[in-house]
Design goal:
84% of the residues lie in helices and 0% in strands. With 104 residues, the protein is an all-alpha fold. The chain has one domain.
Length: 104
Amino acid sequence: MIMNKIFKNPYLNSVYAEVYIILVAWIMRHVGAPNTPDTFFDPIAALSLIVLSVAIMGYLFLGEPLQLYLDGAKKQSVTFFMKTLLSFAVITLIALVIVHTIAR
């Protein structure tokens, strides 16, 4: 029951997306070994991470709007998607301002 409600808020979905991005960036920064030669498995890992990320972002951004659309609620579908997208854009803008401020 709680899982049915967890992804039904467009604003929280955009926060979940940002948390996922932060988690992946943190892991890449702290797990990767600097100055090591590339191996056969590096591109496999990179492509796997890309596919996983696309699937997760697709679910967060399109899962509920697609369900609404298929249920016949086309206007609510577009509204949900736009709320998710715009709130993620605001989060991204805030992140860019923070990064620009820190870089100075």
